[in-house]
Amino acid sequence: MSRNLLSTEDLPYDELSSLVDEAIAARSGKSLPQKPLAGRSVALVFFNPSLRTRASMQVAIYELGGNPVFIEPGGTSWSLEHRDGVVMDGDRTEHLAEFVRVLERYVAAIGVRTFAELRDWDVDREDPILNAFARYASVPIINLESAMHHPCQALADMMTIREKLGAGRRKLLLTWAWHPKPLPMAVPNSFALAAAQFGHDLRIAHPPGYGLDERLIASIEEHAAANGTTVEFVDDPDTAFDEVDVVYAKSWGGKQFYGDAAADIAHRAAFRGDWIVTSEKMARTADAIFMHCLPVRRNVIVTDEVIDSPRSVVIDEAENRLHIQKAILTKLIK
Ligand code: CP
């Protein structure tokens, strides 16, 4: 049976940790370049725009000796239906049942980028499109960001923390930031989950109305309990920064406003100005590094002064997507 990477919970910690170590060794030139994908192709299915994920996966597959096959449903391929039992008399031309089973006759793995639709929370939290790919596939499915998870990003984040701060237990702050519109939760979900899996202490800061998924929080708390680490939830945008080693900023939408962007935008208006990463807040930390998955809105999520400072590691973090994805592809495609 093939192994998928739908979330970081698909692999045990020792395997996640080995991926990070392999990626660090490869980045520093300590391991020899290999071509494990020679003569093989990997499909990269993008329902949404991307810079980092798209470019780094294409380069990773090429540098491993393989051939990336890009598919944009509704653009370069037919529009796709993923729901079971649907009468397809609307504008969707092909069902995932055929799409996946045809595609896997050509390729060794399928990477999928499909964001949250931000219409119905009960639907998005089940990651229906990603899970439909996994249901129909017999080759590995690699999540390139879905409604609920972004495991490649989270592993690049854990790699960056290990590279910059060493392998020990650190205190990580995940802070919500004001943004003009509601965004999906995949990045904060996966960062928080991976932080707990990797044995870090985690502080999650957000204003009222922006709590993460309860089921995800239960998983985070289980990992923290197993590792003897802490998980804190705070709502003060200043003291949240006290004595942390890592500041990870991200904006996301509120569950109760799902499907009503105008209500979310009205609710979050009160938090503009307070929920931005500034030099004053960074000064409260234990000389923390600043992280963001990118793309980032300057002087909205973080000031120019912070993102351009020596403590900002966002460009290395983005580079690490390439290294960690090479390790993931090598592991999953045998
Ligand atoms: N961080 C990230 O996934 O970037 P892209 O959306 O540009 O791929």
Largest sheet, order of strands side by side? 9-8-7-10-11
Total separate domains: 2
CATH level 1 name of the largest domain: Alpha Beta
Tell me the CATH superfamily of the largest domain. Answer: Aspartate/ornithine carbamoyltransferase
- Per CATH, what is the topology of the largest domain? Rossmann fold
How much of the sequence lies in strands comes to 5-15%
Shape: globular
Please mark out the parts with pLDDT under 50 across 5 or more consecutive residues, or reply none: none
CATH architecture of the largest domain: 3-Layer(aba) Sandwich
In DSSP terms, counting alpha (H) and pi (I) runs of 4 or more, how many helices?
A: 12
Q: Give the end-to-end Cα distance, rounded to a whole number of Å.
A: 11 Å
- Rounded Rg: 20 Å
**Which ligands, by name, code or SMILES, are bound?**
phosphoric acid mono(formamide)ester
Major sheet attributes: 5 strands, parallel
How would you state the average pLDDT, rounded? 97
Which class best fits the helix and strand makeup? alpha/beta
The total of beta strands comes to: 11
The helix/strand series, from N terminus to C terminus, equals HEHEEEHEHHEHEHEHEEHHEHH
